[in-house]
Amino acid sequence: MAEADPLKEYNRKRDFTRTKEPAGKRERRGGNSFIVQKHDATRLHYDFRLEVDGVLKSWAVTRGPSLDPADKRLAVRTEDHPLSYASFEGTIPKGEYGGGTVMLWDEGTWEPVPGKSAKDLAKGHLHFVLHGQRMKGEWLLIRLKPRPGEGKRENWLLRKIDDAYAGPAEDLVGRELTSIKSGRTMGEIAANAPAISLKGKRGKAFDAAMSEAERATPARPAPKRSKLAKAPPFQAPQLATLVDAVPTGNNWLHEIKYDGYRSLVSVAGSRVQVFTRSGLDWTDRFASLAKEVAGMNLPPMLIDGEIVALGPNGNPDFSTLQQVLKGENKGALHLFAFDLLSLDGEDLTWQPNIARKEKLAALLGQGSAHVHLSDHIVGAGEKLFRTMCEAGQEGIICKRADAPYRGARTKNWLKVKCTRRQEFVIVGWMPSTASGRSLRNILLAQHDEQGLVYAGKVGTGFNAQNSERLLSQLKARARQTAALQVPRSEARGAKWVRPDLVAEIAFAEFTSDNVVRHGSFLGLREDKKAKDVSREKVMAVPEQESDVHVSNRDRLIFPEAKVTKGQLADYYEAAGAIMLPWIAHRPISLVRCPQGRAKKCFFQKHDSGSFGDHVKHVPIREKDGDEQDYLYVDDIDGLVACVQMGTIEFHGWGSRVEDVEKPDRLIFDLDPDEGLDFEDVKKAARDIRRTLEDIGLTSFPMLSGGKGVHVVVPLTPEAEWPKVKDFADRFSRALASAEPDRFTATMSKAKRKGRIFIDWLRNQRGATAVLPYVVRARENAPVAVPVTWDELEVIDRPGAYTIADIDKLLARAGSRELRGWGEARQTLPDY
Predict the structure, then answer these.
(1) Judging by beta carbons within 10 Å of its beta carbon (0-12, 13-18, 19+), is residue 161 exposed, middle or buried?
(2) N or C, which end of the chain is more exposed by having fewer CB within 10 Å?
(3) Residues near 613 by beta carbon (within 8 Å), at least 6 away in sequence
(4) Which residue among 136, 160, 201, 257 is the active-site one?
(5) CATH no. for residue 393?
(6) Model confidence pLDDT, tens digit, residues 66-104
(7) Using CA atoms, how far apart are residues 268 and 274, in angstroms rounded to an integer?
(8) For residues 80 and 6, is the Cβ–Cβ distance under 8 A?
(9) Could you list the residue range(s) of the whole structural domain that residue 278 is in?
């Protein structure tokens, strides 16, 4: 009996005289490829295909794959496709099966996890690993039980397994907008074929309107793009001060203190160098990580982080790291990245710590198998410290959220240790008389103002491996006399060595004689020079309270919400850590309401100095040619100082003070006419997102806290204001022309009736827009809040969050879902 043709249904559905799709022919080769095609047909979806038995088993994933393990995406089983379909990209004619634009969105290989096979598909589940350009790591497909009336339709769920590649839900479909085959957007692919008019999406009306608007606007030369291919040089790292307690307050970010080698990673595409904290080039020693970073195709940037190896309990372990580096352990090296010092040749060290971390999060995305973003929490450091100590970890690092990066030891970075650990110089050793032991203990020292000072002995922490290796290094450094003064009782029987080996020692305390008590050898520190080893003294936590005095704290600012001036100041002090990436170093205009929101309020953008030293000034040329000093802030004290002067709202330019002529974002403010439902605004935001995606631009939604939603489009600051304004104008008018019953791009109230005004005027020089986490001068003190596109689906009003939700806002700002919100490296298309 002849074997059934698995491609019969595929061929039956297509007229190959009209479509350029390949005819279905089964192949006998046994490969393991997979592809994903972004398909804009009746509605947008992603076709996920696995090679099995000479065909591509296929599922239509309606919302696209998600990196969030908690997100189960519906995947509808479709007909098998031929292997030749793996290279198809183009347009299926309107009226044909699947009519619409097809993009080759991802490709790679797949394999079932050990103990599983492709035959599990027949059982209704498949656990597998993907090695794609965008989809990586472990995934799961599960068939759902059929519901009445579904017939032969098979509904499956596609879910990411929680592993090193897991991440925010929108990191994939929201940011990966171009073809891996041609680099084109969906719009550019569609432009090669007759336009397909799909309601609510980019089609003939939109294209015609954009073209008409373009003809009506004088062409402007595109700015020259700077292409820096060279990896950035080493910079001295910032060091932390040892303190005796965890600092309190929401001005601090708290991270895990990793037990490894501090490293700076310089990268530009495939060019990668890994430096130690002292500037040694250890790229060869960390070759596996360097290769992995090279494969991530990162722009020119300098990353600060820690390289670790995981011990038997899964935690970073310094001894295991040394074994891996010496080839005695086959464990993997991991990089935990926690800071970004430069990007595309631009120095970022002046930016607030939290802003640098946001940029790093957006660039790394979900990272890779061994390259990870070091997470942080805002406030609540004591809880993290207890957790780390209970897990047997070293401690935590606490960093001022608003502090710049300094290549020195400062009190803006603090370290709190669960156990005491320091570096010591080995000055001698004593042989063991016990059977099976060659090394009894080592003699230690540290530097002070007078030179080397004896610091005691350590006789634990040695094993067969490390003691023999250490002994050989000690014998090679033998000398006749001690390099320092050692008490006679301690020196009896000692063998002396040249003092250039550095050991990491864990100990309980220093005794009254200034020697270590209950010390244990952890390993040698080859990344540190002996001359730099001095005693690290524990300091008290520095006072970091705001020195801005807030007067009249009991004055009622929001009568209906019973919010006082003091509570408003406390909100901005607490929220400052999550506001700074968006407000710092940006010209701002203030909405000042000195007597409260219900009384007289006014805008202010200039200052003669009455705001105090914490509020800065930047001279900006105005239309008449004169220069005026505009306001900006660069730390949390600056925010509080503005509140002291009666400020409620902060509105910012679309550019920063370093180059006010080159904006770093577009804002489309969706302002609905009275009577329109918030659901209308949400649908408009989603449609604008889709249209932006078609032309290759990633966008993010923000609840305005007022009447609508802001669609935020980050930009690499290259184009100047005239080009950005021109694009925003043409884009908005094109949308309004395509759907005149829904949208208007003019401020005229008569033309806004029953429509949503796409306010593009915020994208011109000198215009401002409300900034993330700003309190609005409206009833109940609502807040402008960044959200994800998935969250927007279920939110019922633009003022969903208020000043009372500060704890919730702080917690969600550091969540996996919002990681990298508002950050993307992209430029305006030449449209």
Answers:
(1) middle
(2) N
(3) none
(4) 257
(5) 3.30.470.30
(6) 998 988 999 999 999 999 999 999 999 988 999 999 999
(7) 12
(8) yes
(9) 244-417
